[in-house]
Amino acid sequence: MAGRGKLIAVIGDEDTCTGFLLGGIGELNKNRKPNFLVVEKDTSITEIEETFKSFLARNDIGIILINQFIAEMIRHAIDGHMESIPAVLEIPSKEHPYDASKDSILRRAKGMFCAEDFR
Question: Residue 1 and residue 93: Cα distance in Å, rounded?
Fold first, then answer.
C-alpha cells in the first residue's frame, strides 16, 4: 500500500451505492472482496454486521460510509468502534433523512466539548 491512499467503503441502499460507484469508489482487494455492500430487503443483519466488521479489519479502507437507517440495525457494532481510522460516517438516504440525534460519532464529539469552548 506504500504510496497509495486509502479507500472509501459504502454500506447502503441501492441508490446510495450506485451513486458512489458511479463516482468511482468501487474497488476489489487482492482477495476479490468489494469495498461496498448493497443492502436490500432480504439482506440479513448478520451479513451487514459481518461486512462492517470486515471493512474495519481491512487496512486499505480509511472511511466507511453507511446509511443511517442501516447503521441503526448494527448500532452496537458501530458504537463499539473506537478507532479513528477507518472513520465511520452515517449518511442519509433518499428514503430516510439524516437525524443528528441518532449519529453515534456526533454524540461522541458533542461529549468532548462544552458550550464555553465555543465562546
Answer: 32
- Find the distance separating the first CA and the last CA of the chain, reported in whole Å: 43
Tell me the pTM: 0.81
Q: Which residues pair with 90 in a beta bridge?
A: 66
Q: Are 70 and 39 in contact (CB under 8 A)?
A: yes
Pairing mode of beta strands 36-38, 61-67: unpaired
23 grid coordinates? 463516482
**Counting every residue, how long is the chain?**
119
Could you tell me if 97 and 72 are in contact, meaning their C-beta atoms sit under 8 angstroms apart? no
Q: What is the rounded CA–CA span in Å between residue 28 and residue 60?
A: 11
Phi and psi based region of residue 114 (left: phi greater than 0; alpha: psi -120 to 50; beta: remaining): beta
**Residue 71 or 27, more confident:** 71
36 against 105, higher pLDDT: 36
What the block records as the C-alpha cell of 114 is 462544552
Q: Counting beta carbons within 10 angstroms of the beta carbon of residue 93, is it exposed (0 to 12), middle (13 to 18) or buried (19 or more)?
A: middle
pLDDT for position 116: 58
